[in-house]
Amino acid sequence: MLAAPFTVFSVVLGGAALAAGPGWRSLLVQMLFVHAASCSGDCLTLLRIATQVPPGAFVHNSGWQTYWKGRASG
After folding, report:
1. Nearest one of 40, 59, 41 to 49, comparing CA atoms
2. pLDDT (0 to 100) of residue 63
3. pTM exceeds cut of 0.85
């Protein structure tokens, strides 16, 4: 769920920029860059989770804190 807003809005804005006329294309590309910059924290969090949490672990968010817990063996 962490990457969903970045992915969806990037695809929507990118598709709109490709379909738009030249006058609107510049505005939509600028909006795409602003959106990507505002989602950089989400991208960094996703990168940290992908590199620091063991495979198969459960990730839990509690407010601003994110925890991971390994699966119970057995």
Report:
1. 59
2. 82
3. no
